[in-house]
What we know:
Order of helices and strands: HHH
Strand content: under 5%
Number of domains: 1
Oligomer: single chain
Distance between the termini: 21 Å
Amino acid sequence: MWESIFELGFCLLLGAIALAVVAWEIATGNIAYLDGIALSLISLTLGGFFLFDVYWSYRSGELKEVLKKKETEARSQKSE
């Protein structure tokens, strides 16, 4: 269970960083140059790759199952 939480958290973090890079490129205006376009395309590709894993876990119900198990464990430890 912890492996899934760590994996999904790591993928979510890397996907968010990749989207932040694209937002930074747009905010600074570097997107208008070839280097900015290349960096944005690479960042969007990597972000899509990592965020697709989180999306697929959500879609298949794995994410909900993992969070439900974690919540159940927390309740059982709290009641003891």
